[in-house]
Amino acid sequence: xxxxxxxxxxxxxxxxxxxxxxxxxxxxxxxxxxxxxxxxxxxxxxxxxxxxxxxxxxxxxxxxxxxxxxxxxxxxxxxxxxxxxxxxxxxxxxxxxxxxxxxxxxxxxxxxxxxxxxxxxxxxxxxxxxxxxxxxxxxxxxxxxxxxxxxxxxxxxxxxxxxxxxxxxxxxxxxxxxxxxxxxxxxxxxxxxxxxxxxxxxxxxxxxxxxxxxxxxxxxxxxxxxxxxxxxxxxxxxxxxxxxxxxxxxxxxxxxxxxxxxxxxxxxxxxxxxxxxxxxxxxxxxxxxxxxxxxxxxxxxxxxxxxxxxxxxxxxxxxxxxxxxxxxxxxxxxxxxxxxxxxxxxxxxxxxxxxxxxxxxx
Length: 362
Description:
Radius of gyration: 26 Å
Largest sheet: 8 strands, mixed
Distance between the termini: 28 Å
């Protein structure tokens, strides 16, 4: 479908539930403003939440998007903002244009963990202009970025793909996947782990042997103990919840590796947040409960704020190890669904869409 800048345009922005939907809703007005600068009225932007699915062969299923487009009266452009990480020939894929369906798919993770409104808007506008402007050579677009590279398709109406640079694209994608998992919202849901960690860590306030040990240990050794405690809890959570996956086909090896890396980093953020919260709680408790005069008698020197912080740090290290065990008894928290929402969605659709299944896409 060819347009020029004198034509109006109707855009339907369909986003996955969760972070992509919140991003889509927050930038809708800005997208309409940018479109108004490129097109004459009428300019319309509609938003809708729907889950982008994969077929059993791991190709994109655009049937739902086409059906939603019919409901909106066949808009000129359909933009799908998804949390699915996508690769083609091992290269991180930011966006892909399907001209026959007037659909463009934009992958949020490839834009990074700290994808600014401007970065997402630039990508959306870049896709819209490529799908609506007349065929012919294109000059540099004000919406382009140096680290993104479209393929060689210069004609409007041709299938096009937009890739991130090879050097940092994979790192940016993993960080984007971690952001989609929303680890800071996951951490408070580890209630049993936090309770067990707090109960164990509180012993550091009342046992003078912990005071003496924390005073004796050097700062690098204390930091190493904290890192070991965090690592032990992450390892336990991965093993006890079966969070590490192996690819069923060699073609999926890199994608599965990205998911595994994002899982480890998501848990790292969760456990580190829990650890720091525990340090703060124990520190406050120690400042209230432990008398400086009494501590002086025990450790043989005048305590400072750093002394209380060392006690809290060492006690929290013991606490997170106990918290790992406590997480095993948290029946209300499905950690796999929290850290593997994207992967679980793909797996369900693949399994339920297999021959003999009665699954029908919603």
